[in-house]
Amino acid sequence: EFDSEARKQGVFKVETNGDNYVAVVGLPDPRYDHALVMAQFAQRCLGRFRDLMKELELSLGPGTAKLGMRIGMHSGPVTAGVLRGERQRFQLFGDTISTARQLESTGVRNM
Question: Side-chain half-sphere of 62: how many Cα atoms within 13 Å?
Answer without folding.
Answer: 0
